[in-house]
Description:
- The chain has 11 helices and 10 strands.
- By secondary structure, the protein is of the alpha+beta class.
- Helix 2 crosses helix 7 (246-257), helix 6 (205-217) crosses helix 7 and helix 8 packs across helix 11.
- The radius of gyration is 21 Å and the shape is globular.
- The structure holds heme C (2 copies).
- One heme C is lined by residues 181, 198, 278-280, 282-284, 313, 315, 319, 334, 336-337, 348-350, 357, 360-361, 364, 367-368, 371, 375, 390.
- One heme C (HEC) binds at residues 75-76, 79, 81-83, 91-93, 148, 150-151, 153, 156, 196-198, 205, 208-209, 212-213, 216-217, 252, 256.
Amino acid sequence: xxxxxxxxLLSLAVALGAASxxxxxxxxxLTVVRDDPSDQPIEGAxxxxxxxxxxxxxxxxxxxxxxxxLGPVFIQSSCRACHGAGGRGPGSVTRMTLVGDDGVSARxxxxxxxxxxxxxxxxxxxxxxxxxxxxxxxxxxxxxxSRRVGPAVFGRGWMEAVSDEAILAEEARQSASGGAVSGRxxxxxxxxxxxxxxxxxxxxxxxxxxxxFQGDMGLTSPRVPTEVANPDGLTDDxxxxxxxxxxxxxxxxxYVRRLAIPxxxxxxxEGRRRYEQAGCSGCHVPSMATRADFPVAAMAGxxxxxxxxxxxxDMGDALADGIVGEGLATEREWRTAPLLGMRFxxxxxxxxxxxxxxxxxxxxxxxxxxxxxxxxxxxxxxRAALVDFVxxx
Length: 393
Ligand code: HEC
Ligand code: HEC
């Protein structure tokens, strides 16, 4: 990943890189200086973690070509295209669905009306003549088109490391509290708890990586061996059979797994008080315990400061996207967004509709409406302290 940094951040980044490159030295002779504060390996990384981080980083940046299996339909040709700018975007995924009279609930006959699925894949390769795009309006159904901006991928190893017990304990705590805020774990068909994706539809990073290769880039691998449905009915591309080995999928995920939560500084006690007072910590839980047996030792048996409970919450109609089929998540439900590296972002929420942290808070509906109202009721100085706190997370 590389970020478009402001001159101030850039000089800060260079200073940080210069100060710490001695410790991170890495390997025989070659010292890699990483000057992007949003692209650092986890603290306590071993030499082997460093090697896996660097190897995966190259794969994450790689631009795939049709001869390597890109397509037949796809969205972008590298992971970085959607996870590159300041950790978020610029690429995005367009989703589409048909909704009923309430404008939110997905219609049951979706598969029949959208035979190539609910994800737009406009780019073509390997002989495809048509991409998958939102169909011109199918009256009288309502076609709801929404966008998902590529979220930052830093800190995601910590999300994988959080123990199931911690997530379930948080779910139980919220349910027992009897208040309006009551999230639920997304349980997948195989019984595992979903954590990744804006509706927590995937349980682990290797699987997410395999699904991203196939769904976003048309690159199949042993876990996801079939090409996505397309209007030409093509079942293969320029590279016959499976396009990537599982080791490429796992190596790419290995980079994401070892990306650190960007360093935080200057968090004020006053800001934290306002954050608690408004009820932000009800969902954006400051930390969750990780598994003692997590394979990356530096993240095992620790506290993951994710500022997320990893649970799904009903956020109301205005944020709803009409998309179902991602585990248990309904049209209105979203995983509590982890609050990490917020200072790098220029847009917020799953579709980037909010241009500031304040706006993102004001758009919290459903279970989040109480916190938005509490924020609104604060004095300007208290609101400013709260927002400053969130910006530094
Ligand atoms: C076309 C844009 C695009 C490309 C290409 C892309 N992603 Fe993503 N990625 C997204 C979007 C959008 C989301 C959130 C999507 C969702 O939940 O449906 C996402 C989510 C993720 C997540 C989960 C983050 C979280 O907070 O749960 C990971 C991990 C990830 N992508 C890794 C990858 C990897 C690895 C690749 C390359 C193999 C890749 N992505 C390629 C757009 C993209
Ligand atoms: C009921 C649970 C809940 C509460 C309470 C809550 N949030 Fe959220 N928050 C969410 C969810 C879910 C999302 C993701 C929504 C989306 O992407 O559409 C989110 C998204 C955000 C985002 C955008 C993050 C990003 O990466 O774009 C910010 C900022 C945020 N919340 C801050 C706050 C603050 C500050 C408070 C307290 C005033 C708060 N939230 C209270 C659940 C909650």
